[in-house]
Design brief:
With 245 residues, the protein is an alpha/beta fold. The protein has eight helices and six strands, in the order βαβααβααβααβαβ. It has one domain: P-loop containing nucleotide triphosphate hydrolases (Rossmann fold). The protein has a six-stranded parallel sheet, with helices on both faces.
């Protein structure tokens, strides 16, 4: 494990196909940090829409059907820069835990593979931005696309929710390819919680996430107490860690 981004904070990103439970587990993790890690500051953000200007970008991305896939990636990158500069970096520099819902990995899966732009092309478009402050940990909630769509209910909330079965199948495959590629390019730890059939309940999933994050939380505490510097590295750089059900 490595303190990846050269800050005294901890940058955690939740990823997964729509309906995988990202909102739920961002909230559960936030509450557990508040309850069990007294004195630890944390910030919750999302991409797109983590800033005031980003909210406008988010609304356009989710509703404008005239956007090309290239234009979508460009808007996501614009939002990512705003979120990084206004939310993520300031919080990390003061030693906070940043908990983020979605990241560039979603673009690799959705626009790169789902819409056929190419995972490598989307990664290249994001490389300069993400390299400045890569996540310490990506928690990948790996469920089947049918499970995710079933959790949406009958309501179709945005243009992505209304895509075809083929698109969702490609996004699911794209996620698997994307997290592998990210682990090759960045020293980020990928914590995969695999639950293709949706049999794992919310609390069991949270328990697995917390267990996977404990070494990172411990390192954060040691940095805060002055026991180590935030440039410390220990074994396990860039490896994927997987929990299967």
């Amino acid at each position: 494990m490595l303190k990846v981004n050269g800050t005294p904070g901890l940058y955690i990103v939740f990823e997964g196909i729509g309906g995988s439970g990202k909102d739920t587990h961002v909230a559960l993790l936030s509450e557990r940090i508040r309850r069990e890690m007294s004195g630890t500051k944390f910030t919750v953000t999302r991409e797109p829409g983590g800033t005031e200007e980003g909210q406008k970008i988010r609304r356009r991305l989710l509703s404008d059907r005239t956007l090309t896939r290239e234009e979508e990636v460009g808007l996501f990158v614009e939002d990512r820069i705003l979120n990084q500069e206004q939310v993520v970096l300031p919080a990390l520099r003061e030693g906070s835990v940043v908990i983020q819902n979605r990241s560039f990995v979603s673009n690799m899966a959705y626009q790169g593979h789902g819409k056929g732009l190419g995972i490598e092309r989307v990664l290249e478009a994001n490389l300069a931005v993400v390299s400045k402050v890569p996540p310490d940990v990506i928690v990948f909630l790996d469920i089947g696309w049918e499970i995710g769509k079933g959790r949406f209910g009958k309501a179709e909330n945005d243009k992505f929710d209304q895509e075809t079965v083929n698109f969702w199948q490609r996004v699911e495959t794209g996620y698997l390819q994307s997290v592998r590629r990210v682990a090759e390019v960045f020293p980020t730890r990928v914590l995969t919680i695999e639950d293709k059939t949706g049999r794992l309940n919310i609390l069991d999933t949270h328990r697995k996430i917390w267990q996977g994050l404990e070494p990172h939380m411990d390192l954060l505490w040691r940095i805060r107490e002055g026991l180590v510097t935030h440039s410390l590295s220990i074994e396990g750089v860039g490896r994927q860690q997987k929990e299967r059900v």
